[in-house]
């Protein structure tokens, strides 16, 4: 019997549900189908510091750390029942061993009152059935909750709903610009859904991480794959890296500035400290040169002989710019900006072929032949052949001395147009001729 058709995956939790041969509900973890996935780089190394703390993941980006008080043999991917308030929750073990302590230090996790919550047991078929029923209620509950919040006129958006594994509690994630008084909303939710309600406010970046998606770079969003703590991003980071201040390019899917603007900020800031500040144009014998652009990583600066246009561009290394500035402060003008010992700039060859051209599949446009009889009357049937077979006067096919062929005459086509113009002018009716004074 094929049991694969009974598998029902849940992308938010990275798990798949099915039934075994006895018809009991089972669940298995699916790698790569959940948020904030990790790679166990130290899995093949021996554990140096034995610990009973395990990382357990839940829906989307929610994770927490629990203590294995019953000495269960747990490994990554095991589905366990953990302590919750109230009741219990169902999660999946996502990290074990030495990496747990490093991860807790990285995310800044502090247990409540210094005590970790407990891992009760591995999930039983009954726990998995109830967990699956709770997951099936989440989408319908979120839609209904949005309608209730809109009817009450609250300025908030409910982005996600997560049911607890025992189906007695649900977390409502919402986004709001300011504080929202949702005391009446909680009462309506409790009467409508008959569960305990927990409201948790998140930001736009956290919402993008919970939803997931593909970024402009073609990879999975950083907030959904590995970033768990967010730092403040300003337009100053874009200015330091000489990026275009285009909001459409600098904003991510959360409509905020991209978090990746801060990844290389320190490198650019350190490189910019070593570059001289050019407040005045460089003085040379052949004129003044104005700063146009600076390449922070290449440590070069580009100057132009015109203040308002890109003319006579010269690229100088930072060391040469310092020498020119020192000479200008001393009241001297340099003979040339590059210097006498400057090496000629060699352009790097490009290895592009016709295969790289984006227009290689476009059809070449054919040039239209000009109609030599344009502006005149078309020859009637049979007249074209008579004209071709007609012999010129003055001999057997000979041309008069000194006469050039018509197709070789310079401006012959203009003469024909001028003759046609005179012919039409002479054929005008008498009433339309110009009156003589």
Question: Can you describe this structure?
Answer:
By secondary structure, this protein is an alpha+beta fold. Helices cover 26% and strands 19% of the residues. Strand 13 and strand 14 form a beta hairpin. Mean pLDDT is 80; it is low at 1-5, 382-403 and 405-411.
Descriptive tags:
437 residues; alpha+beta; GMP Synthetase, Chain A, domain 3; 26% helix; disordered N terminus
Provide the β-strand percentage band.
Answer: 15-25%
Q: Regions with pLDDT < 50 over 5+ consecutive residues? A: 1-5, 382-403, 405-411
Instruction: Tell me the major beta sheet.
Output: 5 strands, mixed, barrel
Approximate helicity band: 25-40%
Using only CA atoms, what is the Rg?
A: 40 Å
Briefly say what this structure is.
By secondary structure, the protein is α+β, with helices and mostly antiparallel strands. The protein is 26% helix and 19% strand.
